[in-house]
Amino acid sequence: MAENANAPAHFFITGDPLIYGADVAIVLCVLGIVFALTKLKKWKWLWTEWLTSVDHKKIGIMYFIASILMLFRGGVDALLMRIQLSVPNNHFLESEHYNQIFTTHGTIMILFVAMPLIFAFFNVAVPLQIGARDVAYPFLNAVSFWMFFFGALLFNLSFVIGGSPDAGWTSYPPLSGLEFDQGPGENFYLMGLSISGIGSLATGINFIVTIFKMRAPGMRLMDMPLFTWSVLASCLTILIAFPVLTVALALLAVDRLMGGHFFTMLHGGNPMMFINLFWMWGHPEVYIAVLPAFGIFSEVVSVFSRKKIFGYKSMVFSMILISIASYFTWAHHFFTMGAGADVNAFFAISTMAIGIPTGVKIFNWLFTMFRGRIELTQTMLWTVGFILCFVVAGATGVMLAVAPADYQYHNSYFLVAHFHQALIGGAVFGLFAGMYYWFPKMFGVILSERLGKWAFWLWNIGFYVCFMPQYALGFMGMTRRVYTYSPEMGWGNLNMVSTVGGFLMGIGFLFQGAQLVMAIIKPQRDLTGDPWNGHTLEWSIPSPAPLYNFAVLPEVKGRDAWLTEKKEMKKGSSKKKTLLVEDIHMPKNTGIPFVMAFFFFVAGFGLTMTYWWMGVVGLLGIVACLIARSNTSYEAEYWIPAQEVIDTEKQLRKGGSGDGVQTRIV
Amino acid sequence: MKRNLIKLLTVLGATALLASGCDSRYIMLHPVGPVAKTELDLIYFSILLIAVIVIPVLALLIFIVYRYRNKPGNKAKYMPEWEDNKVLEYVWWGIPILIIGILGYQTAKTTFVLTEPPVKDVKPITIQVTSLNWKWLFQYPDQKVATVNYVEIPAGVPVQFVLTADAPINSFWVPQLGGQEYAMPGMAMRLWLQADKPGTYYGSGANFTGEGFQHMKFEVVAKPQAEFDEWAKGIKQKAPALTMQGYEDLQKPGVLDNVQEFSSYPEGLFHDIVMKDGGQYMDMSKMEHDLLK
Lengths: 666, 293
What we know:
The structure holds two protein chains of two kinds.
Chain A: H1 17-39, H2 43-51, H3 56-85, H4 95-129, H5 138-157, H6 185-213, H7 226-258, H8 271-304, H9 312-325, H10 341-369, H11 378-401, H12 403-409, H13 413-443, E1 445-446, H14 449-475, H15 492-521, E2 524-525, H16 561-571, E3 577-581, E4 584-587, H17 592-608, H18 612-632, E5 637-640, H19 642-652, E6 661-665
Chain B: H1 2-22, H2 34-67, H3 86-113, E1 125-132, E2 135-140, E3 145-148, E4 150-154, E5 159-165, E6 170-174, E7 178-183, E8 189-193, E9 199-205, E10 217-223, H4 225-238, H5 244-251, E11 260-262, H6 269-276, H7 284-287
Parallel strand pairs in B: 1-5, 4-10
Antiparallel strand pairs in B: 1-2, 2-3, 3-11, 5-8, 6-7, 6-9, 9-10
Membrane topology (chain B): Multi-pass membrane protein
Function (chain B): Catalyzes quinol oxidation with the concomitant reduction of oxygen to water. Subunit II transfers the electrons from a quinol to the binuclear center of the catalytic subunit I.
Keywords (chain B): Cell membrane, Electron transport, Lipoprotein, Membrane, Oxidoreductase, Palmitate, Respiratory chain, Signal, Transmembrane, Transmembrane helix, Transport
């Protein structure tokens, strides 16, 4: 072993034309952004409006943009792998690069795409749905975002500096230990995930408190929109699952950086312990990502079927049940680790049991559509596509839960196909539906239906073309994470088909990119604030929502608060409603979250590269930020005068929403 | 468009089914031993049970989306306020519970069955398997010979594979004989497999072990008992011995192009491998001494 096994062979990655190409692209992009910001004199705007913002709506938008960029990178990783696997004995990528790419693909897709995208919608929708002016801890919310951002940045830095991690996104020791994995690549994984993980945990806490303490007057728990319920279920899962990940990563980091022996083969270390800890987080993590998608579908299916959600109580109950049961299934990720028949039987049955509440949700969605009037807009299409896809994912999930059958499926392409179907068909489709649904609320612009339908069909056809052959490949004995295979196995044709499907999805993504570009250059504005005839409170205010969200906090009298209010307004349309506006108390912008997360980045980079002095600088910076915050927290808030609120409302409501609403100062 | 998609799916599904039925490359669907057969039967049973619920649900989805779509003049019933029905809810809590109950029972039963030797009246043979970076070492404690990257077994005889690793965690998988089990440093794990008829079967490492992982393939050659004995005797006479130095060379990271055979190996090698990588900290009663001969 080298003197310092964590040290990189070269500071910058060299020798690979793909990476040189990417380096050039990165430098050009950065220069382009710097030039544009300078030319347009936008630096100050960037700092005051975005980097220092504690507004949940802006934080939501930043999460959204970051995760779409990460989706691009994770998607390129996926396509590189598909090219490599499309024909037998391919030499497009060598083993070393292939291993790095599947590692970064998995890590990025789960932690830097799915997580920030759900957080984007937590931020965009939850405070508006419960009639609140912000989250419970706006400062902490900004900290969460910047921790995610700098964690993701640190992880992605491994692409050009020091080398990417290559032990799989699951990073099992001893493979990920110093003995078998030298250089800083694995440290980037550990530090990047640890830093962003702190952000995720803080988000979980923030939204639990927000939902429990900041609901509009009159809104009982059982009056909450189902998306808010799903966020609560997801956050409760985060609260218990993420600390486990933090501990697992910290112990592995101690092994690697300080010569510890928690998971090594020597001196009493036990690698199986890491695998248990990883999946105690990892399995609930799947539900953390998919529960909010369930919430989104529940909103969408009801709005676009022009009908109330069917079986609200069952929906709530099943989500909470899923959230609790998700803690009792982790060992199904390693039925083959020899835990014994009793343990395997328990985890097999507990895993299948999760299918019960999930199945109930499917029935309830179906019966929400039943006797409704279904409008197949792009948002609804993704929901229908989801049900089709997720039913199959659930079916193969139950098949995998059958422990003795899993001895055959384990680590095969059958498994690969299953979890992609659950995560794409469940979480990603749901988050796309959420994107189309709330985009008008985020930006005041509706995304193009025409381009969106192209994207939908490309994604959906591409999905089945890509992943159905992978189920079959599992039956042919193809294992995951092989970088190539020999022609006599007969895996070539199906792999080629799968690659074509992958590219269809990639083209679908380009259409979505085109939708975003069209939204900028030829925006179709939403002037009503309620383009879908929605049921919940976020549609009762203008799009995009004003800084303070609600000029006057709404009085809630039951479920579907905005639908009820609209009906009442129709009945008494002659009566003009008067809103009494008061001064509004709001949090001030602050640069501390950004600076503090930056110091986390510095410390993380220092530890990753074993530049200890840099680690110390980073940690001191973090402490300084904490002290600065403690000494300024008394001046962290301000009041918006009522007159200013009234002026803003008049300005915003010219378009039509809330016609007949009068405002006056108390 | 929707109909095209459904057509496409049906075609794809049917092709996959047909292809798998008669195509011997779908090795998992062509078991040659009792363990793989038991597992495949359970797979078919689970598919059948799940189909009972999945097919009606998908049919219902297509029907509902078609029948209740919003178009002018749609005469289908419209009940915007209808949001609850106790009987229906009991039905769809009940159906999955019933199905999972049946499947769960069958799963638990089979899980216990597979921990036993597949056949009780034939004396089993033991083979010790070590996953190395990036090759497989097989030791035959009864014959006192060793092979690398291929393994011979007598057909019709239950084989007790005892698995460990002197490298990162791997998984030992011979799809046509049965499911896999992890090979882990510091652990000795038991996996029962059996081939009913002579033949050559594909085996591979199934858990990622780093750069040379793709090369961790091996062949399982099943022969009638007499030929197997003959084969072992041949190796005993012709092949070189595996020395401690030889093992240490094997243990170094690297890929072998060919298979290797050894007429003997250092006494207690397997035991020592398990012990040096953490075996001494493990619960010995769980690892059972007969696995570590």
